[in-house]
Design goal:
alpha/beta, Helicase, Ruva Protein, domain 3, 2 domains, 219 residues, Uridine Diphospho-n-acetylenolpyruvylglucosamine Reductase, domain 2, single chain, elongated
Length: 219
């Protein structure tokens, strides 16, 4: 297996983590702290080709495969004992085809982060994102791959509706969560939180009770 791991390390653009490596315990940890499984190898993919290479490795060595996105599944399906974990959490790129009007984003990105990406959706800033997701009852910390197509559409349509209304009336909407960290949610009374999100660390606001989704651990 050691020789095979060396070959896998040479084949992946990303990284390979095995028992004994300094990163191993952190890499195998998932959101549910009660899940304590020890995979044989973790392939942290950086490009789409890495995923195919990792599956080929698992097939050759007859390893069970677990796929990790955000690591938030409460049952811990993102990690397996003695198997191969295909870790997609580093795949966060965006590909935009302007002529075809199609944008593709890696599913490990957060919903709030994607809405703020001006290469995907122009004009949505922190305030519009936070207020739209609150009204749609969607967490900004939902991984894109975990949001159904209708939920993504609802987030975009809600943001567009708020922005159109602001242009037509000349007034911004009454802020329900934006800039209100620590205060009670006007809908359910839960606590409003604020935390930096994405590579730019832009502050996002959400209600911990009525916007269902996993929050960052440190928030």
């Amino acid at each position: 297996m050691n020789e095979s791991l060396s070959e896998l390390r040479r084949s992946l653009a990303g990284s390979v983590i095995a028992p004994g490596d300094a990163e191993y315990d952190a890499a195998r940890r998932c959101f549910n702290a009660l899940v304590d499984r020890r995979p044989a190898v973790i392939g942290r993919c950086a490009v789409a080709g890495d995923v195919a290479t990792a599956f080929d490795f698992a097939r050759t060595h007859e390893l069970d495969v677990a796929v990790r996105g955000g690591g938030h599944n409460p049952a811990g399906h993102c990690v397996s004992d003695g198997g191969l974990v295909i870790d997609l959490s580093s795949m966060r790129t965006v590909d935009v085809d302007g002529e075809a009007r199609i944008a593709r984003a890696d599913g490990s990105r957060w919903l709030g982060e994607v809405l703020l990406d001006q290469t995907l959706v122009a004009g949505i800033g922190n305030m519009w994102m936070a207020e739209a997701l609150w009204r749609a009852r969607l967490s900004p910390w939902r991984r894109l791959r975990d949001a159904a197509a209708e939920e993504r559409r609802l987030a975009l349509e809600t943001a567009a509706s708020l922005m159109r209304a602001s242009v037509e009336t000349g007034r911004e909407p009454r802020k329900q969560v934006y800039g209100r960290a620590g205060r009670p949610c006007p809908r359910c009374g839960g606590r409003i939180r604020a935390w930096g999100q994405g590579d730019a660390n832009r502050t996002t606001y959400w209600c911990e009770r009525c916007q269902v989704g996993e929050a960052p651990r440190a928030a």
